[in-house]
Design a protein that fits this description.
Oligomer: single chain
Distance between the termini: 70 Å
Helix content: 10-25%
Largest sheet: 7 strands, mixed
Shape: globular
Mean pLDDT: 95
Structural class: alpha+beta
Number of helices: 10
Radius of gyration: 24 Å
């Protein structure tokens, strides 16, 4: 009997609400550092996650067993766990948002059927060559690191209410890091990229050698750039920094579980929280690293408008929170492996492009900065307060970009920053680098947007 039929049979023979999610992950990690191959490992992880809803309480069990007898036993354990915990639960699950019964196959691995898969040996060779290029770039390069990771997920989701979904989802990413020194001063620069797709697609626009050149160029710019003084300035953020702001400082505050815990946007649906130039969405259908056409509850991904022309419109939901808020779930319940329960996560989060030209936006700044990308550090919390280190920065004087600068840290409250936005560019990109988000468990995400002009407090050298 095929595994899908076993899952369906297990669900059909129980009266409780059940969700069975088979998940097989095949992964590869390669790292070359300072000329040495540090890692080249393949792993396969597979099993079934079982959620049971009994007496308003969740029971969860994961198992590597895939036989009918083994899964039936695991289901009984999940149901028993929920039933025993129910009397102790203060706030019961009132219900789950309904989903239409469906049978669906989602396959992101289209190109794998059209192109010859790159071998492990070829991948290692190219990563070694990239690291070698870094090392030979000049005497100012003191250390190098090139790393690559990929995984392909195969999932089968079956629920009591008629959902049968099969998913094939490949994702991969690469990072290039260069370390340098000049006049006893050390700097670090990195470039990275992540996609839903395979090795060939990852390098379809820029080769590994191109990424090495970018990292070296950025490093040398950081080594020669001057420090700046702190203060409030008019700044232009590039799509990468807009993505960091959208994801870290805004996106987490609108996840319904964080809202329930008291985030800054609790009870603010319908209120103006940003400039009318700002429309922010979470979209599992977008072609980014967070692409998730169907989530781990079997829910169809949607384009959820979080902020519409400055007005807060929606939170991000799973089936449980969507029922509580009397709204539709948008495909934001995600689990990293079969050992994890689905929780509310972002997918591709971005600000929609506007109507301004970047050149005109720069011309409108008398004294400020053009800022690009996040460096090593950054943090944000449920109040939308944030602090990010900037990777690449340029001084703007009298409407002209004058020279590169460094040592910039951005601080502020994200919604106050969005209220100060007075220009949004036509340009657009999803650009969150390697695209990992942590929230108790990792998740592949992406974020970005246009260039935006706003006011920000900058911490610099005193």
């Amino acid at each position: 009997m095929e595994l899908k039929e076993i899952l369906k049979k297990v669900v059909a023979n129980r009266d409780e609400w059940l969700e069975l999610r088979y998940h097989k992950r095949t992964s590869l990690d390669i790292e070359v550092k300072n000329g040495r191959l540090r890692e080249a490992t393949r792993n396969i992880l597979s099993g079934v996650a079982i959620r049971a809803l009994v007496d308003g309480c969740w029971g969860f069990v994961s198992t590597s067993e895939t036989s009918y007898a083994g899964l039936s036993k695991a289901v009984s354990q999940a149901c028993k766990s929920a039933k025993e915990a129910a009397p102790l639960k203060k706030e019961k699950v009132k219900g789950l948002a309904s989903l239409p019964a469906k049978k669906e196959k989602v396959d992101f691995a289209r190109s794998n059927n059209q192109q010859k898969e790159t071998s492990l040996e070829e991948k290692i060779r190219e990563i070694r060559q990239a690291d070698n290029l870094l090392q030979k770039a000049g005497e100012d390069i003191i250390a190098s690191q090139v790393s690559y990771s990929e995984y392909q997920d195969e999932k089968i989701i079956v629920t009591s209410d008629g959902i049968e979904v099969e998913i094939t989802d490949p994702k991969c990413d690469v990072g290039v890091v260069a370390y340098g020194v000049k006049d006893s001063q050390q700097e670090r620069a990195h470039v990275s990229k992540s996609i839903t797709g395979n090795w060939t697609e990852l390098f379809s626009e820029k080769s590994l050698a191109d990424l090495v050149d970018e990292a070296v160029s950025l490093l040398r710019q950081r080594l020669t750039a001057e420090h700046v003084s702190g203060g409030e300035y008019q700044v232009i953020l590039d799509p990468a920094l807009v993505g960091v702001l959208a994801h870290e400082a805004i996106g987490h505050t609108v996840e319904a579980d964080f809202v329930e815990a008291g985030s800054v946007v609790q009870g603010k649906i319908g209120e103006q929280v940003a400039s009318e130039l700002v429309t922010l969405v979470d979209d599992g259908n977008a072609a980014g690293a967070g692409r998730t056409l169907v989530d781990d509850e079997g829910c169809q991904a949607d384009k959820t408008i979080i902020i519409d022309k400055g007005i807060l419109q929606n939170y991000l939901h799973n089936r449980e929170s969507a029922f509580k808020y009397d709204t539709e779930p948008g495909g934001n319940a995600r689990a990293f492996t079969y050992r994890d329960e689905p929780i509310i996560r972002m997918t591709n989060t971005y600000i929609m492009p506007g109507k301004s030209e970047l050149a005109e936006m720069i011309e409108g700044v008398s004294e400020g900065f053009l800022l690009k990308g996040m460096a090593q550090g950054g943090q944000a919390d449920s109040t939308a307060e944030f602090m990010f280190d900037v990777l690449e920065a340029y001084k703007i004087e009298e409407g002209q970009i004058s020279h590169p600068v460094k040592g910039i840290t951005l601080t502020g409250q994200a919604f106050e920053v969005l209220k100060s936005v007075d220009a949004v560019s036509k340009d657009f990109a999803l650009d969150l680098g390697r695209g990992y988000c942590g929230k108790g468990q990792p998740a592949k995400v992406d974020a970005g947007g246009p260039y935006i002009r706003c006011k920000l407090m900058i911490g610099g050298q005193q």
